[in-house]
Specification:
The protein is of the alpha/beta class. It is 47% helix and 19% strand. A five-stranded parallel beta sheet has the order 3-2-1-4-5, sandwiched between helices. The longest helix is centred in the first third of the chain and has 17 residues.
Length: 141
């Protein structure tokens, strides 16, 4: 039975490295790849701004380079927009799709933000019920 690997994407060099490793794993395991974009607006009541942001992110997902790279590697992949904070988005999607694992980059947040709020990889490692692979940026070199 084909399983899913969820990979978090934020456009950073670190998330690119995570995508590369997730594609490699999905190809080897013959799994599908869910490329996860998380978006949580500061206030749900922003109306038109929220809809425009969501539309822009959906268009980005349709042109997603990670999906194109996975497809070129023979891996079934789709881009998924999840309206939650990054760690919660990855955990929710992984649970929804019964994912085999979650893959993320090491440094998707600014250092001070990570110290105050906690980094996405740290939250995933401590809250996930499935394996989490944290990929350093130099991993894709």
């Amino acid at each position: 039975m084909k399983r899913t690997i969820a990979v978090g994407v934020d456009g950073s060099e670190c998330s690119d490295a995570a995508v590369d490793r997730a594609i490699e794993l999905a190809a080897g395991l013959r799994d599908a790849l869910a490329v996860v974009y998380a978006v949580e607006p500061p206030f749900r009541s922003v109306g038109d701004e929220w809809r425009e942001s969501q539309k822009a992110l959906e268009e980005l997902g349709q042109r997603d380079q990670a999906v194109a790279r996975a497809t070129e590697a023979g891996v079934e992949a789709d881009a998924v927009l999840v309206a939650r904070r990054p760690a919660e988005a990855l955990l929710a999607l992984a649970a929804e799709r019964d994912a085999r694992m979650i893959v993320c980059g090491t440094a998707s947040e600014r250092p001070l933000t990570g110290l105050i709020l906690g980094s996405v990889p740290h939250k995933l490692v401590h809250r996930s019920n499935i394996p989490v692979l944290v990929v350093p940026v130099h991993e894709s070199d």
